[in-house]
Design brief:
The protein has about 60 residues and is mainly α. The protein has a domain of about 40 residues. It contains two helices and no strands. It is rod-shaped and about 70 Å long.
Length: about 60
Amino acid sequence: MKGLMKRLENMMMAVTFAEAGEHDTAREILKETEEAKKKNRVTPSQRPGKTMRASSRPRS
């Protein structure tokens, strides 16, 4: 929930700058937000995964 609030805050800040005519600053804010989001992303190899197990009873 904290991450969602931070992303929303950054979007609103970018909107404010864009409305004031500072389009480049707004783009930078959104770019930094995307870079931070990518940096915090967990790769599949880091996630604890479920192991697939075969059934113990034979199929007929």
